[in-house]
Each structure stands twice: as structure tokens, then as C-alpha cells.
Design brief:
Blueprint: H1 24-41, H2 54-63, H3 69-82, H4 86-90, H5 94-101, H6 107-124, H7 133-136, H8 144-153, H9 164-173, H10 181-189, H11 197-210, H12 238-242, H13 274-281
Helix pairs in contact: 1-11, 2-8, 5-6, 9-11
The chain binds iron/sulfur cluster.
Length: 284
Amino acid sequence: MAKSGVSAAPVKPAFKKAKFPATHTALVRQARKINRALAEVYPYAHPELDFENAFQLLVATVLSAQTTDLRVNQTTPALFAKYPTPAALADANPEELEELIRPTGFFRNKAKSLLGLSKALRDDFGGEVPGTLAELVTLPGVGRKTANVVLGNVFGVPGITVDTHFGRLARRFGWSQSEDPVVVEQDVMALIPKSEWTMLSHRVVFHGRRICHAQKPACGACPIAGLCPSYGAGETDPVKAEKLLKYEKGGKPGQRLKPPADFPGEAAARQTGPQDMATDAGEA
Ligand code: SF4
């Protein structure tokens, strides 16, 4: 006889668990299916950093290392009000700059990068953000990931942005086995048409932040579970999984203070509250 309080048997999924594709052709097909499915789940996927121009996106992306986009979005309005151009930021007092960006963490190193990249923009690029990968990665604090964010979202140059979420999901989908972001980028480039690279990056990162978390993926509430060879890596009970959903999928605000018009969730709050601190402590 079942004792009271004993949980019911796990709910079986309404699909046969997908296998890791065995051939490159099968992997290409699976990757494109997942991309199309994610496009339906997140038709409004977008960069989650608030920005109005290339310089702001570059600065915000440098600040986003090891913190949430929300934290950056709550920090940059005061920063850009005080230093609106590369020339203004290049002349910033380092201590004042550190104080302004302190909430984003690693503020001494980030301040050094911002001062260095602003000076380079002012002195070597006529105060403009350059539009090529080769030039962008010469700027202090700017690696391939940051460069691809700027290229894809300001200059319309397709790029795959491999952050912690993208790398994790690429491995869960079987798109790459590597922990090296550059190798993951190359592996995925071989699977998805170039024209899709920037939007694929947004969709995958959206999914990683909302549903396919690092520690507790919400498999039981995942709309692409039937395509995913890693189904079962996390909670499969639909009711329990539903509770793990974040941002608009969990009925909560997003990360942007100024989200795009088609974003179905609410804008984030200007001030950081206790709930945001919890998010920071978890996944960026
Ligand atoms: S949440 Fe689970 S089923 Fe969905 S993509 Fe992640 S690992 Fe796969």
C-alpha cells in the first residue's frame, strides 16, 4: 500500500527520446530542426543588453563578463550619461569609473579594459567602433565573443556568440564535444547556415537562461524536449519543471530595462533587488 507523501510515478514523456545523431548529415538535420523549433519558442529573441549604438554595446558586453545582463543594464545608464563617447570615457578618472561599474564585479580589470578600448577607439579608429572581427579583437578586453556580439547586432555581420549558455547547450544537443568556445563556434558554423548565426545565438542563449539551466534544466517543461538527446539531464516532472522556468517563461520580468516592443514579458526594474542578487549567484 502506498504511504501518504510518497510521490507518484514519474510522468512518461509523450515522445521517444531523441538519440545523438550518428552522422554529420543527421546532425545537420537535427541542428536545423532545433534552430527552427527555438525560433518558434522565442520569436522575440534579442540581445539582452540595453544599448543605443555600437560603442554602448561594446562597453556593455565587456561589462557583462561574469555577471547578469540585468546587472549591466542597471549599471550602464549612469555610465553612458557621464561618458557618452569613447573620447569622454578615455579621459575618465579611473577611480570614478571603477566606482560606477563596481556592481558588475571584477571592476578594476573591467575599468582598465574600458579605458584601454576607449583610448584605442579615439586614437586609432577616429572615435568609431570598427566593423571587422580583425580590428575589434585588437581592442583591450575584446575577444571573439564580444566582437561577434557587436558585429551581429550592430553591423549585421552574422556571428555565433559562444558564451557559457551557448557552449553548454551545444554540448547537450551533440553539436560539439568541446569546452573551447572557439572550437564550439567552428563546430556549429558547420551545421547552421550563415544567415542564421546571429539569431541562433540569441535563441540558444534565451533557452539556456530560461529553461535549459546549467544545474537544473527544466526538461519536463521544455518545448524542444522531443528533439533533445539530453532530455532527462534535469527535472522531467512537468509540474516541478514548470517551477524552474525563468524570466518571461516563468511569468517574471526580463533583463532589459528597455526591451523590444515584441517582448512578451515585463521590463526589468531599474534597481537591483534581492531576487536579482539570487540570479547573480546562480547563472549569469
Ligand atoms: S531542458 Fe532538457 S530537454 Fe530541454 S534542451 Fe535542455 S536538456 Fe534538452
